[in-house]
Every structure is written in structure tokens, then in C-alpha cells.
């Protein structure tokens, strides 16, 4: 979450005037994240998050919002989109599609415990099972072709050493990507700042705007690369805890276990490159926290070394 598009108090009052959510009493930009602008908004009736989508249009967002409605109707851990008096979920604010969701209780955590890794693993499995019969029209943006497209955007900025590493990993991933693995809807971005905990228990799963159709193992790898990283070092005990939580609901197949390291490598490469793209784009933000791309380079090297060992 970040703030790229500024919204004045008067604009917020006018925007929320179209809802039956009470009058705005306070608001603040939310600095975490990368892609969209987010505001925490308190009204006389409750707490909400206003999201302005910086790049996606209404057509692209509709499947995600329908997914949120589906999940939020049955599980309080998911943000529930709020409709205005004309039953519209997406509206326009400052030239951007905008959505209001209930703000969930809790806070994100910096250093998850083994138990919290188990909890996030179990919740990820629940998400996969809850959406297994859902046809989701957004294709993967984590596959090799998508990773290569990111690479092409930053290739000229890279050192010879980094180029050699990336090209070698892309070759490896290309040789193994055709393997058929179980899949469906994936969150695609379940980092620590996209989950909330209250009193040690998971209380919210946020930011589904990177959701797509892909291998479920890909989602596990994206999640594990953040939740199981301590001061830059991949913690295999936390990975074991996350997987044990996941497998209480959906045991992995033998082929998924075989491809676990490969997916961890692919996820590390993908987020190294996507963060480099963001860094070199010089995209201005009124409120943002820069994300370090090179933690994922380090993870990629660690996963490659583990595979060779």
C-alpha cells in the first residue's frame, strides 16, 4: 500500500456521501506496498480502507472484486467490498477506479513465529480450497514469459554478474515450467504486510489485486519467501511450519514436493525483477516505503545453493 494519488478532505467527504457508511471523521494515507493508493478512513459508523487503483481499469478489476465478494461473504478474514446507495462497488475518484472495504482488525507482523507461519500456511490452503471451483479469468503474471518481460525492462541496468545469474536461472525455469501441477486461484502477493494478526491469531488477509490463475505451489513459494526469511536468511524451520499448516487442509502431492525448491527460486527471481522495475521507474509517491529488490536476489542464491547441495 502506498499513496500516489492525493485525496483532499473535501473529496473524501463527497465520495463517502454516496454511501450509507456515516460521515468521515478522520483519514490517513497508508504507506506500505507498491502498486496502488490506500487510505485508512474512519467514519461515524466504522473503519474502512479506500483504494485507488493506479494502473488497473474497471474491466480488469471486476473479477478481483467478485472474488472478494465471494470470500468476504463467508469468511471474516477477508475485506468485504462496500456498495454505494446505487449498489456500485467500483466508483471514480480523481480519475481512478476506487473501492471501499471494511477495515479489518489487527496489525501486520515483522517477525512471524513458527505458529504464525503455520497459521498463514493453513489460511493459504483454505483460500485455495474455497476457490477451487472458481473460474478466474486473470492469467498468471508469475510464469517464465512474465518474468522474462520484467527482465527485459531492467536488463540494461544490470551488472554482468547479475545478468549471468538471471539468464542461467531463466534457462533452468524454462526447462521445467511445463510440469503439470495442481492449481486455481492464487493470492500472488501474500507477504507479511498483507496479513493481519490480533492477539497472536490471524485476523485478516489483504490486497488481492495481484490474484491470478496459477499453480497453488507458486502461491506457497511467494508466501514462504517472505514469511520464512529472517534478516535475509531463509529459515527452513519456518518453511516446515508453513507447509505443515498448509497440509493440515490440503496435503501436497509428491510432484509438488519435488518442485518446491524450483518454485521458491522462481518466486525469488520474479520479485527481485519486479522490485527493480519499480525502482527504476521513478514513479512519484506522496507516501511510500521503498522495497529492497536485493533481498530476493540473496534468496535466489540461497535456494540455488540448497538445490545444488
Strand-residue proportion: 15-25%
pLDDT < 50 runs, ≥5 residues: none
Terminal-residue CA separation: 38 Å
The rounded Rg comes to: 20 Å
Helix/strand order, N-terminal first: HEEEHEEHHHEEEEHEEHHHH
Mean pLDDT: 93
Range of helix content: 40-55%
Largest sheet features: 5 strands, antiparallel
Assign an overall shape: globular
User: Count the helices. How many?
Assistant: 10
Count of extended strands: 11
Q: Order of strands across the biggest sheet?
A: 1-2-3-5-4
What does this protein structure show overall?
There is one protein chain. This protein has 309 residues and is α+β, with helices and mostly antiparallel strands. It is 43% helix and 16% strand. The protein has 10 helices and 11 strands. Helix 3 runs antiparallel to helix 6 and helix 4 runs antiparallel to helix 5.
Q: Any key phrases for this structure?
A:
about 300 residues; two-stranded antiparallel sheet; globular
Q: What is the strand and helix layout of this fold?
A:
Layout: H1 9-16, E1 24-29, E2 37-43, E3 47-52, H2 58-72, E4 91-93, E5 96-102, H3 114-130, H4 144-154, H5 160-176, E6 183-186, E7 195-198, E8 201-205, E9 212-215, H6 216-227, E10 229-230, E11 233-234, H7 236-247, H8 254-258, H9 260-281, H10 294-308
Antiparallel strand pairs: 1-2, 2-3, 3-5, 4-5, 6-9, 7-8, 10-11
Helix pairs in contact: 3-6, 3-7, 4-5, 4-9, 5-9, 6-9, 9-10
Amino acid at each position: 500500500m502506498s499513496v500516489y494519488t492525493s485525496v483532499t478532505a473535501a473529496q473524501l467527504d463527497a465520495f463517502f456521501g454516496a454511501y450509507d457508511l456515516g460521515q468521515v471523521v478522520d483519514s490517513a494515507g497508508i504507506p506500505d506496498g507498491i502498486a496502488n493508493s490506500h487510505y485508512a478512513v474512519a467514519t461515524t459508523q466504522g473503519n474502512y480502507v479506500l483504494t485507488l487503483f493506479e494502473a488497473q481499469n474497471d474491466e480488469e478489476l471486476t473479477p478481483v472484486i467478485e472474488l472478494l465478494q465471494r470470500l468476504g461473504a463467508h469468511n471474516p478474514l477477508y475485506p468485504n467490498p462496500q456498495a454505494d446507495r446505487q449498489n456500485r462497488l467500483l466508483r471514480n475518484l480523481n480519475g481512478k477506479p476506487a473501492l471501499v472495504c471494511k477495515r479489518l482488525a489487527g496489525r501486520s507482523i515483522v517477525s512471524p513465529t513458527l505458529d504464525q507461519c503455520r497459521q498463514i500456511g493453513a489460511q493459504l490452503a483454505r483460500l485455495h480450497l474455497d476457490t477451487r471451483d472458481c473460474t478466474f479469468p486473470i492469467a498468471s503474471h508469475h510464469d517464465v514469459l512474465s518474468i522474462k518481460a520484467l527482465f527485459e525492462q531492467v536488463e540494461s541496468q544490470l551488472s554482468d554478474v547479475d545478468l549471468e545469474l538471471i539468464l542461467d536461472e531463466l534457462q533452468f525455469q524454462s526447462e521445467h515450467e511445463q510440469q503439470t501441477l495442481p492449481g486455481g486461484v492464487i493470492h500472488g502477493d501474500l507477504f507479511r504486510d498483507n496479513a493481519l494478526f490480533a492477539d497472536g491469531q490471524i485476523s485478516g488477509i489483504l490486497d488481492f489485486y495481484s490474484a491470478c490463475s496459477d499453480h497453488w505451489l507458486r502461491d506457497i513459494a511467494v508466501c514462504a519467501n517472505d514469511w520464512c526469511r529472517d534478516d535475509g536468511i531463509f529459515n527452513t524451520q519456518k518453511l516446515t511450519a508453513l507447509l505443515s499448516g498448509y497440509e493440515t487442509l490440503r496435503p501436497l502431492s509428491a510432484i509438488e514436493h519435488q518442485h518446491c525448491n524450483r518454485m521458491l527460486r522462481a518466486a525469488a527471481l520474479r520479485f527481485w525483477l519486479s522490485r527493480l522495475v519499480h525502482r527504476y521507474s521513478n514513479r512519484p509517491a506522496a507516501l511510500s516505503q521503498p522495497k529492497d529488490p536485493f533481498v530476493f536476489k540473496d534468496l535466489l542464491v540461497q535456494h540455488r545453493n540448497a538445490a545444488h547441495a
